[in-house]
Design brief:
115 residues; mainly beta; OB fold (Dihydrolipoamide Acetyltransferase, E2P); seven-stranded mixed beta sheet; 7 strands; 0% helix; elongated
Length: 115
């Protein structure tokens, strides 16, 4: 395994999507009242997960938000490498902070504050 490829620094690379993105809701809080049964709701945030090609190897990309990616889209991805143990992956994964879908002309930027 190439160690300099898996540092905690911000990395940028061009890639091709190997799968469509899957968007799931990650539960963050639960508010409820118990009165014979539980009344309440779950609040959460969305994450997009897809795989991309990096030098002939498939890597998992996790984007904290909604990111529309289709298989074979050309991408510019920037983010940080993390250990895959937390998400059940043997290898490392990249948590993307910016994904540019060149095929669709869309740019997704995480934690962007709008003023």
């Amino acid at each position: 395994m190439n160690q300099d490829k898996y540092t905690s620094e911000q990395k940028k690379f061009d890639s091709q999507a190997l799968t469509d993105s899957r968007i799931c809701q990650k539960a963050t809080t639960f508010i409820g009242i118990y009165f014979l049964i539980v009344f309440g709701g779950i609040d959460g945030k969305y994450e997009s997960i897809f795989s991309a090609d990096l030098n002939g190897k498939a890597v998992i990309v996790v984007y904290p938000g909604i990111c529309i990616i289709s298989k074979n889209d050309q991408l510019h991805i920037s983010g940080k490498w993390h250990s895959g143990k937390k998400i059940g992956v043997d290898d490392r994964y990249i948590k993307a902070s910016r994904v540019e879908n060149v095929s669709l002309g869309l740019v997704f930027v995480a934690n962007k504050s709008i003023i």
